[in-house]
Amino acid sequence: MAGRKKKEASRLSLGALGAAGMGAVMGLRALMREKVSFEGRTVLLTGGSRGLGLVMARQFMEEGARIILSAREEVELSRARDELERDGGEVLAIPCDVSDRVQVEAMVAQVHERFGVVDVLVNNAGTIQVGPLESMTEEDFDEAMNVHFWGPLYTTLAVLPEMKRRGWGRIVNISSIGGKVSIPHLLPYSASKFALVGLSDGLRTELAQDGILVTTVCPTLMRTGSPPNAYFKGNHEAEYAWFVLGDSLPGMSMNAERAARKIIEACRRGDAEAVVGVPAKVAALARALAPGLTAAVLAHVNRLMPQDSNTDRHRGSESETPLTRSWVTKLTRQAAQKNNEEDLLH
Q1: How far does CA 84 lie from the centroid of its chain?
Q2: What's the fold here for domain 34-345?
Q3: Positions marked catalytic
């Protein structure tokens, strides 16, 4: 009888522990999925002067957030700030090269002085080099890693102390589908975006205990208007042509405003990851389920692409042809005008 009572008590204890554990898991899930308002919050966006960064800044501002824009180009930065202020936003624009830790720390100190703590950090600054491996140099890989890996790390480390002190924060790292599937002729870009995905995933697991939720974003091509400001090597006109055509086609690329809304909603919920756009979701799934087949398909695509080992670097705006100025690229050119990318179009 005593033994039976002990077994029953043991089963009850295990049941209670199981229920408590399940409750803890459900509570943790609820906490991790807590939706927040950005009204009155301070949002720092790197690469915020144009393209996706500027589109997100507009949408955060519509919710009543205070906006800090950071970018290297002061003229573009001033123009973006002026636009947001005309629309009633509270904006601080700070020139900063995120690959320089000293500049990053000075920027965050300036934000603290003006607005106090950073509530939301969006690591969006980016660069892109397009061309075959033979045309790339170590400097191209260094540049991509400095902007896409070291930049997000420096900004994250700079805002973390205050976020930890308050026990709350949101960090969004804009990677790419190129950070999950390495696309031909984008090797420095893809390698650095893979590194950012690893960093972002690791930050997520280590910072959740401090109330800081990190979201890794892997979008498809977005029509932000950025191709004229990207860099092209090898046969630069041919490389620019395939890149800007893909950026302009609705089936291949995604409207920037729609993508920004999805990213902001993922940040609001504190999602671990947001793969944005159908092409990105299909590519990520294919890579996960059939990596060998995916690699074989991409190898075939690579054989169809321009092959030239010329290491000279040209901006997209210097690589225009009649085809890339035609109606086929109309959507990209419209986005460039709208999102502060237009200076280099002429």
Answers
A1: 21
A2: Rossmann fold (3.40.50)
A3: 189
